[in-house]
Hints:
Layout (H helix, E strand, L loop, with lengths): L2 E6 L4 H12 L6 E7 L5 E7 L2 H8 L8 E7 L14 E2 L5 E9 L2 H10 L9 H15 L5 H9 L4 E9 L5 E7 L4 E4 L4 E4 L2 H5 L4 E4 L4 E6 L5 E4 L10 E2 L15 H17 L3 E2 L4 E2 L2 H5 L1 H5 L3 E6 L1 H18 L3 E5 H4 L10 E7 L5 H12 L3 E6 L5 H5 L2 E4 L12 H21 L4 H21 L3 H8 L7 E6 L3 H16 L2 E6 L16 E6 L5 H13 L3 E7 L5 H4 L2 E5 L7 H19 L18
Parallel strand pairs: 17-18, 17-19, 19-20, 20-21, 22-23, 22-24, 24-25, 25-26
Antiparallel strand pairs: 1-4, 1-10, 2-3, 2-4, 5-6, 6-7, 7-8, 8-12, 9-10, 9-11, 11-14, 12-13, 15-16
Amino acid sequence: MCGITGYLGGKDAYPVLVDGLKQLEYRGYDSAGVALVSDSGKLNVYKEKGKVSDLEDYIGDKDRSGHVGIAHTRWATHGEPCARNAHPHVSASGRFAIVHNGIIENYSVIKENLERKGYVFSSSTDTEALVQLIDYMSSRQESSDTVSILQAALREVVGAYAIALIDMEHPDCLYAARKSSPLVIGIGDGEFYLASDVNPVASYTEHVIFLEDEEIAQMCCGEPLRIVNLANDECRHEVTTVPKSLGKVQKGGFGHYMLKEIYEQPDCIRDCMRGRVNIEDKTVFMSAVHEHRDRLLSAGRFIIVACGTSWHAGLIGKQLFENLCQIPTEVAYASEFRYSNPVVGSRDVVFAISQSGETADTLAAVELARSKGAFVYGICNAVGSSIPRSTDTGSYIHVGPEIGVASTKAFTGQVTVLTMIALDLAREKHSIADSVYHEIVGELARIPYKMKSALRSDERIAALSGIFTYARNFIYLGRGYSYPVALEGALKLKEISYIHAEGYPAAEMKHGPIALIDEEMPVVIIATRNALYGKVLSNVQEIKARKGRVIAVVSEGDDVISRIADTVIEVPSSLECLDPLLSTIPLQLLAYHIAVCKGKDVDRPRNLAKSVTVE
Ligand code: M6R
């Protein structure tokens, strides 16, 4: 939530800052702003409601000069989205300008104290309380040293923050600090870049440092980077080299990132399996599994924690771990887990699944699980993000940056990684026959090709989507491995088309939701050929008997459900446990095209942000 950029060096800061903000817009896009130390030594602050492009239009040919600056794209927590609440916020004295990602939980106490001291606030944000507190601390210190002022202020703060700060008494410097919100520093030749994730930085330099909790960075012209913590200890950091493949992501000819990412899935899943699945001898090797084999195999149970789409992947993971490995597995929403006083101990293994690696609830669940002695295994996409850095081990899904707010390729990447972990463990545990193991691995290796053929339904789905723009509700049904796919399909539709959609296990329909079915109600049902096919067929008949409009996702060549359903979308046949990797694709496309038909902003749906870094 919220994206931060910062720059200090020989380049013009404005284009670097705005370019970075555009890459971080997935984190929030309800307002944006920039602060620049101009060539004439003045602090210029520009803010506008809306997207980064609205900010650019607003700035037009105003003074954009300067080699030092900070910028922000916002997802509102405290205070409505408007220019007044947009960042940067400037302190009462005009000395400090700040951008902030996170939540200052004790901001109202800080604000009241400062108001009693005469400070006047002009926004409804928690961030303004922080910049005024910094201002107040500066007035109480004899030295004008910004780092010690920041230390004093941040010691008073409860909550999460990643901040970038300009101090007009040191206009050739830039300051940054973090706690529980990510911040990356890029080190160039006589220049520094700051960003909430590595992508904007990687466009300019391969050398990065991930700031740790309660650390403050001082970046000054012609001086080396200095990092200290709140206790004023000097902190040493390894400089990490980030892959060149990171950096600016383009739409590559697609109308939206979401569609591009849906189409990337065959290649992404191939990348995800690269070096892990051996096609020749049909084996899987996950290095983290082998490194921690005994720890994993001796676990009393697995617990999967995640949010949103990653939680849906976790539900599939549970079935994989239980069916293939015979390991009892629970799946919890990270937000519930962290406050449920969970019974977790040293024999448990907790899997934390997160595309961004920054989701606040999942990160807190990881910390809680570790504090209770559990072994924590992260499954993430964003390289170097907070969750992979706080877990005992992990596997990246390697699907590349996902920009569309609606998660697509990350879901199939997560399911692929979970499948590979389950297969590797099952082999080590001898919980499935070798023949079954090789059969599943062989089929897994074919999934990218089959995904390509599943994508061929795109045109048909685009053509039929217009029919459903009338709908105010949708039901999604599936059984077994297809139940989480139904949940995921419903979530995709909700978040980008704003149509209410519910996912259910198909048999649960009779226990309530069937009352909703009439000729107006579209029911999407995943009815691929597997052990439960006959049961799903009965469910389709029950819906048709009540005049529901059935859109069925079926296996290629199905000639039974295709005669009953109103619309069928075929996907290639596969093994039951791998079906989700294919049946998800038409549901992603359906949600996408319905949203486009309704004229919605697919990549930036209202009220949402890609990384939910606040709870
Ligand atoms: O980055 P994470 O995987 O931890 O994010 C979890 C959810 O916020 C995320 O999956 C969200 O539900 C997506 N917008 C769904 O498309």
